[in-house]
């Protein structure tokens, strides 16, 4: 089954479920994928930043992707994150993922090396040619030190299979700036959880959600309220969710969101080294935020 490459709606970036010994827990992954699909999401993104894609072995990424594709069973598109150190490695992975049934990709800039604008453009153009599948460009200058500006998106607009942008600059003004630069050429997704309401007002097409994977029904409800223009109800729900969404904007966001998922019964907190589960005062503080917020969970 094929899907419209003009993606819209909630495409959660999912965690990679692990056992305590750091091995893949594909059974838990499949169960979580199914719960997200049942909540009404429009797509899944595996092996992204929240999915610890940079810390997985190549064969592990393909196993996670295959698990998601099998679980989705054609109901929604499954995208894979692409985060590699070299162009050749990234292109090879994309080709392998396409063979496994990926509907497309979320492509990050080069890892570790900070490219200049010419190199950035070459990277994305080369990877666009690796497969004919549609893909989303993940712009996160805070996390990855490479900023794809609205003017650069205008330069890349001739790449036919570059259909979407995950805009994570943490500046909601970018949504309007991109629209003013290139109109509706791209589907624009926000990638910062606690800016979803502000970005929705500015006119986005989708949301690559992070923390909401721990409370998918409320997350989907918030998105629908923004689509329906029910701003008063959206604000009320958003205020409840905001302390949990804020967990997505910390350097330990993977640990925080896995701990959140553990508290809602959807996952375990185990992460892949070099990350370690949070401990001590930090753990108690984050658990306090999570438990206080969940105690007031809307019925």
Give a nutshell description of this structure.
Helix content is 45%, strand content 10%.
What's the structural blueprint in terms of helices and strands?
Layout lengths: L8 E2 L15 H14 L4 E3 L11 H15 L5 E5 L4 H13 L4 E4 L9 H12 L6 E5 L1 H4 L5 H6 L6 E6 L5 H10 L4 E4 L5 H7 L3 E2 L8 H12 L3 H15 L7 H11 L16 H16 L4
Parallel strand pairs: 1-8, 2-3, 3-4, 4-5, 5-6, 6-7, 7-8
Relevant terms:
299 residues; alpha/beta; TIM Barrel; eight-stranded parallel sheet; 12 helices; 45% helix; globular
Q: Could you explain the architecture of this structure?
A:
With 299 residues, the chain is of the alpha/beta class. The chain has one domain (9-237): Alpha-Beta Barrel (TIM Barrel). The protein contains 12 helices and 8 strands. It has an 8-stranded parallel sheet with strand order 1-8-7-6-5-4-3-2. Helix 4 (117-128) links the parallel strand 4 (104-107) and strand 5.
User: Over all CA atoms, what is the radius of gyration?
Assistant: 18 Å
What's the tally of helices?
A: 12
Name the structural class.
Answer: alpha/beta
Share in β-strands: 5-15%
């Amino acid at each position: 089954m094929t899907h419209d490459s003009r993606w819209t709606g909630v495409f959660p970036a999912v965690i990679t479920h692990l056992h305590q010994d750091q091995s893949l827990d594909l059974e838990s992954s499949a169960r979580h994928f199914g719960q997200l699909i049942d909540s009404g999401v429009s797509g899944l993104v595996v092996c992204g930043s929240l999915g610890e894609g940079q810390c997985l072995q190549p064969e592990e990424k393909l196993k996670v992707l295959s698990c998601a594709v099998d679980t989705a069973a054609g109901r929604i598109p499954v995208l894979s994150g692409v985060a590699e150190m070299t162009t050749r490695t990234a292109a090879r992975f994309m080709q392998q993922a396409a063979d496994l049934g990926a509907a497309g990709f979320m492509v990050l800039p080069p890892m570790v090396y900070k490219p200049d604008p010419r190199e950035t453009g070459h990277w994305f153009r080369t990877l666009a040619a690796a497969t004919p599948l549609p893909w989303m460009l993940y712009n996160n200058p805070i996390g990855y030190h490479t900023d794809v500006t609205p003017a650069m998106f205008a330069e890349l607009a001739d790449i036919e299979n570059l259909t979407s942008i995950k805009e994570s600059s943490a500046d909601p003004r970018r949504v309007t700036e991109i629209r003013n630069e290139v109109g509706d050429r791209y589907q624009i997704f926000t990638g910062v959880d606690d800016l979803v309401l502000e970005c929705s007002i500015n006119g986005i097409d989708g949301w690559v959600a992070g923390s909401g994977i721990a409370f998918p029904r409320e997350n989907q409800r918030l998105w629908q309220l923004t689509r329906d223009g029910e701003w008063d109800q959206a604000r009320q729900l958003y205020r409840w969710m905001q302390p949990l969404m804020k967990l997505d904007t910390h350097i330990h966001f993977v640990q925080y969101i896995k701990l959140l998922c553990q508290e809602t019964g959807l996952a375990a907190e185990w992460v892949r080294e070099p990350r370690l589960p949070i401990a001590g005062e930090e753990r108690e503080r984050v658990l306090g935020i999570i438990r206080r917020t969940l105690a007031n969970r809307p019925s």
